[in-house]
From TrEMBL:
The lineage of its organism: Bacteria, Pseudomonadati, Pseudomonadota, Betaproteobacteria, Burkholderiales. The keyword Transmembrane helix applies. It comes from the Bacteria. This is LysE family translocator. Keywords: Cell membrane, Membrane, Transmembrane, Transmembrane helix.
Amino acid sequence: MSDSTFLMYLLALAGAFLLPGPDMALVLATGAARGVATALVTAVGIAGARAVHVALSGAGLAALMVTHPQALQWVKWAGAAYLLYLALRLLQSALSSKTAQEAAAPATAHGARASLVRGFLTNLLNPKALLFCSMFLPQFVVGSEQVGMQYLRLGAVLVLMGLLFDALYAVLAARLARRLRGKPSPYGKFVLPTVFVLLAGRLVLG
């Protein structure tokens, strides 16, 4: 790949990651509600799912799902169900009798693991992410030699760049939340559950 083509690839990726989407919304909401550390762990989970999508698109699974729309629909419903489940769990936690001090306590290893899994499954169960990889990456494969290595390099850049953008969103959201902390809202604890419900609706209706 020439330098100009690679630069075009990077710019196209940047444009894609700057567009509002489920991953951005999840990281921003998590950073604002849970802090930068939890949001960064969630971003790592999303990056892991992106790597799986790159591998699956390279294996041709995306094309198979397009030819079998029913399978694609099942994945969408599974993703929406998982997001609604997360919203319910978070809502139960928000309505529980935990004190503010407990809620602000540092994340435990279990909490970090849950955030990692949440980010991973939220992206993995979004079939649009798989279709994006299958349609976007082949456009930048040059020639017919070493296609696998080209795909691997392009996929690695996609995953790393996505992680960089998500980390930036996590830091920005956490900093903004800290600035607004002096103006507490009784509805702040419902932000994250609401985001998950909206993401579920977007996934089903999109």
